[in-house]
Write a structure and sequence with these properties.
The structure holds 2 protein chains of 2 kinds.
Chain A: E1 3-5, E2 10-14, E3 19-21, E4 24-26, E5 33-38, E6 44-50, E7 56-58, E8 64-68, E9 73-78, E10 87-96, E11 101-105, E12 109-114
Parallel strand pairs in A: 2-12
Antiparallel strand pairs in A: 1-4, 3-9, 5-6, 5-10, 7-8, 8-9, 10-11, 10-12
Chain B: E1 4-7, E2 10-13, E3 18-25, E4 31-37, E5 44-50, E6 53-57, E7 64-70, E8 73-79, E9 87-94, E10 103-104, E11 108-112
Parallel strand pairs in B: 2-11
Antiparallel strand pairs in B: 1-3, 3-8, 4-5, 4-9, 5-6, 7-8, 9-10, 9-11
The chains are: A mainly beta, B mainly beta.
Chain lengths: 115, 113
């Protein structure tokens, strides 16, 4: 079965500093990996995805993620954090089962950016 | 139109009530999903519809009844819910053939009293 793990419940960073939110994956076959962000009392917003190609994926709001096959990781990064980046971040993997396709989410990491 | 809409935004219901949640998309997507999300937890898949047919039911209690009247609309009918069913209910859609990401609606915040 496909799965992703987010080892940190919370990441704290000062505004202007680089940020990293970690994600590791366990899949059979080629992974389809995603990052979503959720602001309080809102739905999930798509940030970026890795399907194939370049290991460095650029997404919305200045975020990027690096796919590392040898370390089975897909960490989310941003060179300079903003207070408005404070939110709940989910890593996810596409799971193609016999009955259909769905997203499997990690437990989530709360990012807190201080001014 | 790249939006998934959900109504109502908030719903408070008693344990004996019957209510429905509505989800709509006009992106031509042929797969639609219901997720349940508790506070600060990841979304949990409930149902998947593909071409208006139920393809995945993740062992959800029968007090939740999904319906897909057409390719743009997804309903979740609620009856005899329990207080522990209080959560954010998220709808999502994706293209069936070229499935690269899911688009989520803003959710319905459900409180069962």
């Amino acid at each position: 079965a496909q799965s992703v793990a987010q080892p940190e419940d919370q990441v704290n960073v000062a505004e202007g500093n680089p940020l990293t939110v970690k994600c590791t994956y366990s899949v059979s076959g080629n992974p389809y990996l995603f990052w979503y962000v959720q602001y309080p009392n809102r739905g999930l917003q798509f940030l970026l995805k890795y399907i194939t190609g370049d290991n460095l994926v650029k997404g919305s709001y200045g975020f990027e993620a690096e796919f590392n096959k040898s370390q089975t990781s897909f960490h989310l990064k941003k060179p300079s954090a903003l207070v408005s980046d404070s939110a709940l971040y989910f890593c996810a993997v596409r799971d193609m089962g016999q009955a259909g396709t769905a997203l499997i989410f990690g437990k989530g990491t709360t990012l807190s950016v201080s001014s | 139109d790249t939006e998934v809409t959900q109504t109502p935004k908030h719903l408070v219901m008693g344990m004996t009530n019957k209510k429905s949640l509505k989800c709509e998309q006009h992106m031509g997507h042929r797969a639609m999903y219901w997720y349940k999300q508790k506070a600060k937890k990841p979304p949990e898949l409930m149902f998947v519809y593909s071409y208006e047919k139920l393809s995945i039911n993740e062992s959800v209690p029968s007090r939740f009844s999904p319906e897909c009247p057409n390719s743009s609309l997804l309903n979740l009918h609620l009856h005899a819910l329990q207080p522990e069913d209080s959560a954010l209910y998220l709808c999502a859609s994706s293209p069936e053939r070229d499935w690269t990401e899911q688009y989520f609606g803003p959710g319905t915040r459900l409180t069962v009293t």
